[in-house]
Write a structure and sequence with these properties.
Layout lengths: L7 E14 L5 E16 L6 E2 L11 E10 L12 E7 L3 E9 L9 H6 L2 E13 L3
C-alpha cells in the first residue's frame, strides 16, 4: 500500500515528565523537541487540494489544514487540542512556514487504520511566511 507523501514538518515542545529548578529557585517543566513528519492539505468542504496547488495567500493569514501523521504515526497523548508546533509545509513549488495549532478530530474506530495510514490531524496554520517558486 502506498502511503501519503510527507509535505510537512511539525516541531512540538513536549513535557519530558521531569522538572528542574533554575538559578532563581523557580521550578519549571523540562521539555523535549518532537518532530513530526506529516501529510497536510488545506481543508475544504468540497475539495482537498495539496499545498502544491495553493494560490498566494494575499490577505489571508491562516489556513485550516488536515491530513495524517506519518513519522511517528501518532501524536503522544500529552499533545491535545490547542497544542502548537512550528510548521514548515512545502510542496514542489512552494513553502509555507508558521505556527500550527491542533484542533479536535475524530479518529477511526478501527485500530489498524491509524497504525497503517497514520493518525488524523487537523488544525489552524497561522502563516508567518510563504514562498511560491516556479514548478
Amino acid at each position: 500500500m502506498a502511503g501519503f507523501p510527507a509535505n510537512a514538518t511539525l516541531t512540538f515542545e513536549v513535557s519530558s515528565g521531569e522538572q528542574e529548578i533554575d538559578e532563581n529557585g523557580v521550578t519549571r517543566v523540562v521539555t523535549e523537541t518532537l518532530t513530526v513528519k506529516a501529510f497536510l492539505n488545506e481543508a475544504s468542504s468540497n475539495t482537498s487540494s495539496s499545498v502544491d496547488d495553493y494560490e498566494p495567500i494575499g490577505e489571508r493569514h491562516s489556513l485550516f489544514m488536515e491530513g495524517r501523521c506519518l513519522d511517528p504515526k501518532s501524536l503522544p497523548p500529552s499533545l491535545g487540542v490547542g497544542s502548537e508546533a512550528k510548521a514548515v509545509i512545502g510542496g514542489q513549488v512552494g513553502k509555507i512556514t508558521g505556527t500550527f495549532s491542533l484542533a479536535a478530530v475524530a479518529q477511526s474506530p478501527f485500530e489498524k487504520v491509524p497504525k497503517a495510514l497514520g493518525q488524523k490531524i487537523r488544525g489552524e496554520l497561522v502563516v508567518s511566511s510563504q514562498y511560491v517558486g516556479q514548478g
